[in-house]
Write a structure and sequence with these properties.
Length: 239
Amino acid sequence: MAEEPERLIAEDGTRLDGRKPDELRPLRIQAGVLKRADGSAYLELGSNKIIAAVYGPRELHPRHKQKPDRAVIRFRYNMAPFSVDERKRPGPDRRSIEISKLSKEALEPALFTEYYPRTAIDIFVEVLQADAGTRCAGITAASVALADAGIEMKDLVAAVAAGKVDGHIVLDPMYYEDGYGEADVPLAMMPKYDAITLLQMDGNMTEDEFKEAVRLAKKGCKIIYREQRRALKRKYGGE
Ligand code: ADP
């Protein structure tokens, strides 16, 4: 990472990339980008570039892993070796195993898994370029890919982080802010139900700052949700 500048937030609240504290990075979502997956999506959030692919529901093998009353959801988050500054060693590490688990848990409440007994639904998230906030961007993309696969859902899941940078609570920290900031709060939710499905905190905040971070992240999720729906409407009509 480049050397830390004197300040990350200017006196008037402007951030290094010109954003206001409550502003998301530019967001672009495209549904249905892979021919061989049952559902897929491509997402850019600032410099983050992410592909999500969904396979299934399909019969789960080996059969002893099947659930008689519901689908089994499997989620794999992976960072490409070229996605970060220094080449990342290929393959799963502790971080990606943890992110895979929490991403699955963030999406599962939105899925009618009981409609698909004995099956598996496999979700793959590939981070092609990383710039902080990739777990949330991966969940957002995966949710669009699940809808693109035609899987019955209660709602889409939208996700974004808020953070504390130079004592300010900001939406969607980029890598620089994440690296030099004081705290990071990733959040995922089903906007229609105002239901949070992932909430983490890394670093230190007061209770009031945490509440403000949650408020900002929820506000960000609502904007992301509109973009998710737009992406699906562009592919399936309605816009
Ligand atoms: P998130 O991407 O969800 O914010 P982290 O807070 O763990 O997850 O990571 C923040 C950022 O740090 C990532 O988005 C990426 O830009 C960078 N990063 C993560 N892991 C590595 C790694 N192994 N090598 C270099 N950079 C990394």
